[in-house]
Design goal:
12 strands; 17 helices; alpha+beta; 487 residues; globular; binds magnesium ion; two-stranded antiparallel sheet; 41% helix; binds adenosine monophosphate
C-alpha cells in the first residue's frame, strides 16, 4: 500500500499537447476538510485508506498542494446540448490532474471537479457546491457497486469557500477517476473546428490506450466505433433495467468508454414511471427515462458524424444499426434475471412489458418489487405483492403467466431462487431522499450520514443489519423532490 506521495504518474493525455488542453492550477478552497472517501476507490490507486484522514489529503484534493509529477490540464471539447450544437465547452471547473498507474498496471485519470476557473469556464465561477459533489460521489460509487459501469469517486472535500447558486452555498471538490475522461464531444470539437490532424491524433490515442484489440481488425477506427456502440448499448440497458435516469445526456456528457459520466440532476426511480423526467429544466422530456434508449442512439450518431473523415457513411450507418438490437438483447437478459428466470422464451419481452405497464399505473416501487419477488416462491411472492397494484385483475392475469413461466423455467429450490434473485435485485439504491438527508446533515457539518449511506450502498445486494431505513419507499416529502439543476 502506498502513501500519497508514492503515486506514479504517466500523463498521456497531457502529452497530446496544447491543442487538447490548457495548463491551469487548481484554485484552493478555504479550510478544506474531508467529507467522505471511498476505500474501494483508494484501493484502485493502491492507497492506504488511512491517508484519507491526513491533512495532506484534504490539502491536495482541496487544491492547495500538488505532486511535482502532476500536470493539471483543462481539456477542450464541445458537444450537442439538448439537441443543439455548442461549439466550445471544455473543463470549465474541472482539471485532469494527471494519470496514475497502479500495481496492476491500470491507469486512472485523477480529475478534480470544482477546482476553479479555466479558459473554458465561459460565465461560470469554476466551482462545485457541496450538495452536487456529494451526489456525484454517492452515485458513482453506488452505480459501480450495482455493476453499472461508471466513473469512480475518490473523495469529497468540503470547505468554507462561499459559492453563489440560488442561494449562498459552500464550495467543494470531488476527485473523479476513470480510465479516460474523453467524451463524444472531444471528437466533435476537432471535427467541427476542422482540425483533421488533431482529430487523428485523438483517435489514435483512444485506439491505442482504450481499444487496442481493434488495431488487429481490418478497419481499426470502424472496429473502435462498433465497440463504442456496443458499450453504450450495454450501459443504457443497465440504466433501464435498474431504473437509473441520467438527466443530461448531452454528447459532452457521454464517455468514449461507455461509462456513466457527469452527474447532474440524475435519479433512480422510486415508483416505476417510464415517462419520468428528473431534470426539471428539461421541459420537453428529451431526457426522460424511456427516451434514454433512443437518445443513446442519437448521441452515437452525433459521434458517427464526427468520425466521417475516417470511416465511410455506409459503414458508420451499419455500425449504428447494431445499437438497438444489442440494447434489446442486453435489457431482456437483465430483466429475465431480475424476474429469476434462467432460460429464454420468445414471449419474455411481453411478460416484462405487461408487468411494467401494470407498475406504471399503480405507483409500485420499482426496486422493492423485484427484491420482494425473490424473497419467496413465485406463488407466495406474487400473492403478497398483489396488494400494491390498482388493476388487480390485470395483475392476477400477469401473475398466472409468470408462475407458469417460472414452472417451465426449471426445477430449483426456493433457496436457490432467492439467492439468485437477490444477487441481481438490490435492496438499497441511491434514492433522492436518502441523498437529500445526507446532504442536509453535511451542510450543517455532520458528515456521518453521507459516510453511512456510502457504506450501505457499497453492498446493495446484501441485507445489512440495522439498515432497514435505507430500504424503504420515500416518505411523502421525498417523493417528488425537485433537485436543483445548478451544481
Ligand atoms: P455540465 O452541465 O456540468 O455537464 O457542464 C456543461 C459545461 O458547463 C461544461 O463545459 C462545464 O465545465 C461547464 N460548467 C458547469 N458549471 C460550471 C461552473 N460553475 N463554472 C464553470 N463552468 C461550468
Ligand atoms: Mg458535463
Amino acid at each position: 500500500m502506498k502513501a500519497l506521495d508514492e503515486l506514479i504518474f504517466d500523463n498521456r493525455f497531457a502529452r497530446l499537447g496544447d491543442a487538447f488542453s490548457t495548463h491551469v492550477l487548481p484554485e484552493p478552497l478555504d479550510n478544506p476538510r474531508l467529507v467522505v472517501a471511498s476505500n474501494a476507490a483508494m484501493a484502485l490507486l493502491d492507497l492506504d485508506p488511512a491517508v484519507a484522514e491526513t491533512p495532506l489529503f484534504a490539502d491536495i484534493f482541496g487544491g492547495h498542494k500538488l505532486w511535482a509529477e502532476a500536470e493539471p490540464r483543462a481539456m477542450v471539447y464541445s458537444g450537442h446540448q439538448f439537441g443543439g450544437y455548442t461549439p466550445q465547452l471544455g473543463d470549465g471547473r474541472g482539471l485532469l490532474l494527471g494519470e496514475v498507474y497502479n500495481q496492476a498496471g491500470e491507469h486512472w485519470d485523477l480529475h478534480l471537479k470544482g477546482a476553479g476557473q479555466t479558459p473554458y469556464s465561459r460565465m461560470g465561477d469554476g466551482r462545485a457546491v457541496l450538495r452536487s459533489s456529494i451526489r456525484e460521489f454517492l452515485a458513482s460509487e453506488a452505480l459501480h457497486a450495482l455493476g453499472i459501469p461508471s466513473s469512480r469517486a475518490l473523495c469529497v472535500i468540503g470547505s468554507d469557500t462561499p459559492v453563489w447558486r440560488e442561494k449562498q452555498e459552500r464550495g467543494a471538490m470531488v476527485l473523479r477517476m476513470a480510465h479516460s475522461h474523453i467524451r463524444f464531444g472531444h471528437f466533435e470539437y476537432f471535427y467541427y473546428t476542422k482540425k483533421p490532424e488533431q482529430q487523428k491524433a485523438l483517435a489514435e490515442h483512444v485506439l491505442s490506450l482504450h481499444y487496442p484489440e481493434c488495431r488487429e481488425q481490418p478497419e481499426p477506427y470502424l472496429a473502435m466505433f462498433r465497440a463504442i456502440v456496443e458499450r453504450n448499448a450495454e450501459l443504457i440497458a443497465k440504466w433501464q433495467a435498474y431504473g437509473f435516469c441520467h438527466g443530461v445526456m448531452n454528447t459532452d456528457n457521454m464517455s468514449i468508454l461507455g461509462i456513466t459520466f457527469d452527474f447532474g440532476p440524475f435519479a433512480f426511480l422510486d415508483d416505476f414511471d417510464a415517462h419520468f423526467i428528473c431534470n426539471h429544466s428539461d421541459h420537453e422530456g428529451r431526457y426522460s427515462f424511456s427516451n434514454q434508449v433512443p437518445i443513446g442512439q442519437w448521441n452515437l450518431s452525433a459521434l458517427a458524424q464526427a468520425l466521417t473523415p475516417f470511416i465511410s457513411v455506409e459503414a458508420l450507418t451499419e455500425a449504428l444499426g447494431l445499437y438497438l438490437p444489442l440494447y434489446q438483447a442486453n435489457y431482456l437478459d437483465l430483466m429475465r434475471r431480475r424476474l429469476g428466470l434462467t432460460s429464454a422464451e420468445d414471449d419474455d419481452q411481453k411478460l416484462v412489458e405487461r408487468l411494467l405497464k401494470l407498475m406504471q399505473n399503480s405507483g409500485v416501487d420499482y426496486t422493492l418489487f423485484f427484491r420482494r419477488l425473490g424473497d419467496e416462491s413465485a406463488a407466495l411472492a406474487v400473492a403478497k405483492l398483489r396488494d400494491d397494484f390498482v388493476d388487480l385483475a390485470g395483475f392476477d392475469a400477469w401473475a398466472e403467466l409468470y408462475k407458469a413461466r417460472v414452472a417451465r423455467d426449471g426445477d430449483y429450490s426456493e433457496e436457490q431462487r432467492r439467492e439468485r434473485m437477490h444477487a441481481v435485485n438490490p435492496l438499497y439504491i441511491l434514492r433522492n431522499y436518502l441523498a437529500q438527508n445526507a446532504i442536509t446533515a453535511a451542510e450543517s457539518g455532520d458528515y456521518s450520514e453521507v459516510r453511512r449511506l456510502h457504506e450501505v450502498l457499497s453492498k446493495p445486494f446484501e441485507e445489512q443489519a440495522g439498515m432497514e431505513q435505507y430500504a424503504q419507499r420515500p416518505p411523502d416529502w421525498g417523493k417528488h423532490l425537485e433537485i436543483s439543476c445548478s451544481s
